[in-house]
Specification:
Methylamine Dehydrogenase, Chain H; 13 helices; Rossmann fold; 8-stranded mixed β-sheet; alpha+beta; 707 residues; 5-stranded antiparallel β-sheet; 34% strand
């Protein structure tokens, strides 16, 4: 199946009001002073002395407001205890008869990479053997290396490529590591820091996409060349086998291994949602796979190529519905009439969506969402038929197949729900064996989960989950936290609440998870409904959910906070600038906020397929109507906003948050910014920083909603 390292883009979102008409409803039509919105561009210079001095002042102000609150130490102690709990699940990856785990804790703040056997792992107290102690390595190298994962060569999995980023950003170095010796290989494969995709071909050969120097990157900042690099030759002498265009998003290569064979593939990502995939023949020729550019190629299995279809496909006078999964025999790929050999494996209904596909030696595993709850099916090829069986995961939650290997019939999966702690399962065929369970982290007794539906402006029914204590009174006074994302086809599914349950729900708070358009909860059409010129649909859905919470008297504007990160940060930024009277507080994390300049800050150009291009006059008008930075207005009373980001975030540049804070302060708004110096897009490079970040957030929410 497709390597998870194949595409670095996939590693990786509202005006009416039933309470009355507010003056801010027409804000998007008011003229904007171009000089005012450009006056803080100097804050985009991430590491300039002037900008960093400004950030230091903002951090000091935020620290004084939040960390000096007497509740902060308690918050920090509680979240640290949750994050470092020795009894939490050590998640594992399978490597033949052994498991490997990366663990962070009190003694290993940066983490330790280690291994154990299957038999040992099933014990209560596991004996681990160390592969790489990152705390010791960082001390020895005087760096803050963050473990970004490993890629190991099957079937022995002894030869690995370990990715390490300095401070947690998207650029990382790649070093060869020998498992048997538990050490980096002297004079082994090494790739300098870059946004790299690298995969094994054999012990002495790699497929590499990286920064090869001037002209080798796309305008989005990702590699556009795929090369074959052989052991012993200089990296810059690696043979080019494919070159995409500078205007593309990226290009990458990967290998699909099987017990008796392997296949090599190259993918050219033209946009975020259009790609061309190729099979690399033994003679080095690239043969195009005949799926639509809008399809997502899922890999190969038992002689079949598989793809999920993004848009309705007219094929031989029949329509293949968007969201379907199709197969094509590899032997028929190059036939002139290859289309007639394409068969439908799965077709969604109006309440279901394909979410994920994985495979081991004998089975495919398809994860399907039904009303935003997960189901997993084992699919096997028996004779000329595909035979389906649903796996017995509990209902009303979310199972996920996260690790498989084509060299065994096993798979690893986890299941979680809002109230049921995460459990880790070993799958053999259709049999589930629970290996570990996460200890309860909050009192879920008496906690109930509701799924409600709001009606958006265009009449679309939009679902959302409400998690609360059963005795919660609908009197409009409940402190409520509403979370949303709504972008890039990412589904917001049930998850164990952990610190949210412990610190929020246990103390009488209500948690709400929105499933707005732009996400993938109901397939590609749910996503497509809110991209580019239709972006406002996502914001309208979020506003509709907000009003529905008010109508049900679950909460009211004085008791409602909203939270979102990255694309979700854009969502909450739009929400509070368009509807400031809806919300009491806002948590805005690593956010996109200046949408008129997002393409100027790499890798923003890669997201044009999602948001549209502000260089296009028609799109510029639409984007300008909602872009939070451009729509901050003097004289408007905005809710209290807590922004946090990272200096080291090279995915969503911290200049977005910096400029937004500066502009709001220009109009005397009360706003807080905390910018961590490390951590990349997650704004936390290690477990201590994550705990501090969570403690600051919860202290802010308590100050605004639970005083």
């Amino acid at each position: 199946m497709k390597s998870p390292a194949n595409n670095i883009l996939r590693l990786f979102v509202y005006c009416g009001l039933f309470l009355g008409v507010f003056s801010t409803m027409s804000c998007a039509t008011k003229k904007v002073n171009p000089n005012a919105v450009q006056s803080y561009r100097w804050l985009e210079k991430v590491h300039s002395k002037k900008a960093l001095a400004w950030v230091k002042g903002q951090d000091a102000k935020t620290w004084a407001v939040l960390a000096h609150d007497p509740r902060y130490p308690k918050m920090l102690k509680e979240v640290t205890a949750l994050l470092t709990n020795k009894n939490r699940i050590p998640f594992i990856d399978m490597y033949n008869n052994t498991y490997r785990n990366f663990w962070e804790g009190k003694k290993h703040v940066w983490g330790i990479w280690r291994w154990t056997t299957d038999r040992e792992y099933r014990k209560k107290h596991i004996v681990w053997r160390t592969l790489l102690d990152l705390d010791a390595y960082n001390k020895a190298t005087h760096k803050h290396w963050v473990f970004e994962g490993s890629n190991c060569l099957p079937p022995s999995y002894n030869d690995c490529l370990v990715s390490l980023s300095n401070g947690g950003n998207d650029k990382f170095v790649v070093r060869e590591f020998n498992i048997a010796k538990a050490s980096f290989v002297k004079n082994g494969f090494f790739i300098p820091a870059a946004k790299t995709t690298v995969n094994w071909v054999n012990q002495n050969t790699l497929l590499v996409s990286t920064d090869w120097g001037p002209g080798s990157l796309t305008t989005s900042g990702y590699p556009r060349e795929v090369r074959v690099w052989k052991r012993g030759e200089p990296l810059n002498k690696a043979k080019i086998i494919f070159q995409g265009k500078t205007s593309d998003v990226d290009s990458s290569g990967w290998t699909s291994f099987h017990p008796k064979s392997k296949m090599e593939f190259v993918e050219r990502d033209i946009t975020f949602y259009r790609a061309i995939d190729y099979v690399l023949t033994p003679k080095g020729k690239l043969e195009k796979i005949p799926f639509p550019e809008s399809a997502n190629f899922e890999g190969d299995f038992h002689g079949f190529l598989l793809a999920s279809i993004r848009h309705t496909w007219d094929l031989n006078h029949k329509k293949i519905k968007a969201g379907s999964v199709v197969t094509l025999p590899i032997t028929d790929m190059n036939r002139r009439d290859s289309a007639k050999y394409i068969k439908i494996l799965y077709t969604p209904d109006n309440r279901s969506a394909f979410e994920h596909l994985a495979a081991n030696r004998s089975s495919l595993y398809l994860t399907i969402l039904h009303d935003v709850r997960g189901q997993v099916y084992q699919v096997q090829r028996i004779g000329s038929r595909w035979v389906w069986h649903r796996l017995p995961f509990p209902d009303n939650g979310m199972p996920h197949i996260y690790d498989t290997t084509p060299f065994s019939n096993r798979a690893l999966a986890y299941y979680q729900s809002f109230t049921v702690p995460t459990s880790l399962y070993l799958i053999r065929g259709r049999s589930l064996t629970k290996l570990k369970s996460r200890p309860p982290e909050y009192n879920a007794r008496g906690v109930v989960v509701h799924q409600y539906w709001a009606t958006s402006r265009d009449g679309t029914k939009v679902p959302y989950f409400v998690i609360e204590k059963a005795d919660t009174k609908y009197n409009g006074k409940n402190p409520t936290l509403l979370y949303g994302y709504g972008g890039f086809g990412i589904s917001e599914t049930p998850f164990y609440l952990g610190s949210i349950g412990k610190i929020w729900i246990d103390h009488g708070g209500v948690y709400v998870l929105a499933n707005i358009r732009g996400g993938g909860e109901f397939g590609p059409a749910w996503h497509d409904a809110a991209i580019r010129q239709h972006r406002m649909k996502a914001f309208q859905d979020f506003a509709a959910i907000t009003r529905n919470l008010f109508q049900r008297k679950i909460t009211s504007p004085h008791h409602l906070a909203i939270e979102g990160g990255s694309n979700g940060g854009l969502l909450v930024g739009v929400a509070f600038t368009r509807h400031p009277s809806y919300y009491k507080a806002v948590v805005c994390e690593s956010a996109l906020l200046d949408m008129m300049r997002y393409t100027k800050m790499p890798p923003g150009a890669s997201w044009i397929g999602e948001y549209g291009n502000p260089a296009n006059p028609k799109m510029a008008k639409i984007i300008m109507s909602y872009s939070p930075y451009q729509n901050v207005r003097p004289g408007v009373h905005y809710p209290k906003v807590f922004f946090y980001t990272s200096t080291n975030d090279d995915r969503v540049q911290p200049g977005h948050s910096r400029k937004m804070v500066a502009r709001m302060e220009q109009y005397h708004d009360s706003v807080l910014l905390y910018e961590n110096t490390e951590g990349g897009h997650g704004a936390a490079a290690n477990i201590k920083e994550e705990a501090k970040q969570l403690a600051l957030k919860y202290t802010f929410l308590y100050q605004e909603l639970m005083n």
